Amino acid sequence: MKPKHQPDAVLFDLDGTLLDTAPDLGHALNQVLRAHNRPIKRNAEIRPYASHGSHGLLKLGFGADFNDENRLTLRQQFLDFYEQHVCVDTRLFDEVTELLQQLQALEIPVAIVTNKPTLYTELVLQQIPPLAAIGVVVCGDTLKVAKPDPAPLLHACERLQASNANSINPANCLYVGDAERDILAGRQAKMKTVLANYGYIAPEDDVASWRADFAIDSPLELMQLLVDRG
């Protein structure tokens, strides 16, 4: 069913929204924990924090022992391992391929806006064909600022505009993500925000306080949302 009122574009976060990267991020964390004779973490413990980046995961693993003295060393150990094992068990979330196909059929432009550094983003995307086909990808180090600053989202709109004949107005775009910084960035960019409830949300996260405009429990629910909005 075609929406009566289509968004100019749909922008997506990557980890926890399009890709389930928690297994490989967890492997990297546990590799560092083993190297320092620390107990490893179970996947169920790691998963809710997988969107928190290397800093958040190392904090989960080392607790108060993750401090200014060892922060840089531990982070580099984490990233070195992750770079070599970036897409071992990483997979698209169920329904993502179908969602992207349906958006393409409606000629709705899409982009990825992630805080993941370019190096690791490119290593992952080149192994995931449906995402490798997305032409506009803004990473955590593309600009001088990252989410929750709205600039990366606005930059993605500018790049989409450059490759599309139709106008791309941020106020008529959707941003889909699973973290508070995603919703904050989207709101500050004047976009409609969609919380991916199926992503990496920690027990202590007060998602109601994030004030997302909409929430979805699976990727394809986004299509029903577009129809309902129409």
TrEMBL record:
Keyword Transport assigned: no
Q: Which Gene Ontology cellular-component terms appear in the entry?
A: cytosol
Superkingdom to which the source organism belongs: Bacteria
Q: Which UniProt keywords apply?
A: Carbohydrate metabolism, Hydrolase, Magnesium, Metal-binding
InterPro entries in UniProt: HAD-like_hydrolase_sf, HAD-like_sf, HAD-SF_hydro_IA, HAD_2, HAD_sf, PGP-like_dom2
Q: Name one GO molecular function term.
A: phosphoglycolate phosphatase activity
NCBIfam families, per database record: HAD-SF-IA-v1
**Under which name does UniProt file this protein?**
Phosphoglycolate phosphatase
Q: Which organism is it from?
A: Aliidiomarina iranensis
